[in-house]
Amino acid sequence: MVDTPHTPENPAPSSTPRREMLINLLRLGGLSASAVAAALWLRSRSHRPEDEAPLTLARSFTVPVDARYPEMVVAQGEDPRALVRKALEGLGGVQRFIARGDVVVIKPNIAWDRTPEQGANTNPLAVAEMVRECLNAGAKKVIVTDVSCNEPHRCFQRSGIADAASAAGAEIVLPEERLFHQVNLRGDVLGEWPVLEPFVAADKMINFPVAKSHSLTGVTLGMKNWYGILGGARNRLHQRIHESLADLADVMRPTLTLIDAYRVLIRNGPTGGSLADVLLKKTLVAGTDPVALDAYVAKAYWDLEPSQLRYLQLAQDRGLGKMDFAKVRTEIVTV
User: Fold this and answer.
1) Which of 148, 271, 275, 313 can bridge 152 by disulfide, Cβ–Cβ 3.0-4.6 Å?
2) Closest CA to 138 of 101, 97, 170
């Protein structure tokens, strides 16, 4: 997936100062956040148009564009819970996204039988804080779920997510066979697939992946996290993985995306296992443009250009966001 390394004979393309500042911020893991926070408020050339409702759902999960707020917030600090609170505050507050009476689904990565320290699943403290924020905003119910790759009970327990989210007031839904429904996703690659029930019935959808490497796509971030709504033989989709990711992103247009980069699984993802493969970055990237968020994190931690991630181009072509993350309104905050 990665191009030939740049050398004096094969120099890297020049970057805009804004883009370079954003990339360096994530690579430094927060060391320079306070120095650049006041300087970074990037103005978009145009607002993303309101899209039609997803192909198989009654309505879009998205909220209206609001030019008063950034499209992306990068929060850095010691406490994963405080990162969630600060990111939401920067985006306009949780009330911008969650209304009283909403049924909210939070989709972390709970795919693997790993501990939080191994970085293969979303940080449980951050997930629990997002649950509390939604309930404080008046949500009727908050569901935390995923379709795990390893045995679900062990994944939900060893990740720490089941206990933390439940203590915060969430309903934990395991991917039991009876909860899957055949849904026509009407994609270029994805036709009829079994989809876990909460992803069909929600009012609001929060995508909460963890930042990891991936052998097929280079990285697994926000868009790849949507594989976890599907049952069946998902490995069949790997033959046209970029098209399937664009199909899923087109259907699951989230209310909000938060990418957990507190611990980054920099190598041997998506399963991991060795603590030597985990970088402690103490960062959360949140926003309303899922394409820009994936592009930003992929470039900052893996030096992958958006053009190297074909699914991003396909998603941008469908109007799902902007690959050029330097052109979205961005705020840097420290906790």
Assistant:
1) 148
2) 101
Enumerate residues 6+ apart whose C-beta is below 8 A from 42. 18, 326, 327, 328, 329, 330
Give the pair of three-digit tokens for residue 15. Answer: 């970057």
Closest CA to 242 of 272, 214, 264, 263: 214
Question: End-to-end distance of the chain based on CA atoms, in angstroms?
Answer: 35
What distance in Å separates the CA atoms of residue 191 and residue 200, rounded to the nearest whole number?
Answer: 16
Torsion-angle region of residue 151: left (phi > 0), alpha (psi -120 to 50) or beta?
beta
What is the chain's mean pLDDT, rounded? 89
Residue with tokens 């927060």: 30
The whole-number pLDDT of residue 15 equals: 55
Task: Please check whether residue 313 is in contact with residue 272, taking contact to mean a CB–CB distance below 8 angstroms.
Answer: no
- Alpha-carbon span 291 to 297, nearest angstrom: 10
Tell me: the pLDDT tens digits for 72-111? 999 999 999 999 999 999 999 999 999 999 999 999 999 9
Q: What tokens does 87 get?
A: 């990111």
Whether the per-residue pLDDT at 334 is higher than 70: the answer is: yes
pLDDT at 189: 92
CA 137 to chain centre: 21
CA distance 218 to 51: 28
What is d(CA 66, CA 148) in angstroms, rounded to the nearest whole number? 35
Of 189, 218, 193, 208, nearest to 111 by C-alpha is 208
Q: What single DSSP character describes residue 227?
A: G
CA distance 130 to 45: 31
Q: Helix, strand or coil for residue 195?
A: strand
The residue with tokens 């408020």 is 41
Domains of the chain: 17-48+56-334 (3.40.50.11440)
The rounded distance, in Å, linking the Cα atoms of 295 and 178 is: 36
Contact (Cβ atoms closer than 8 angstroms) between residue 282 and residue 29: yes
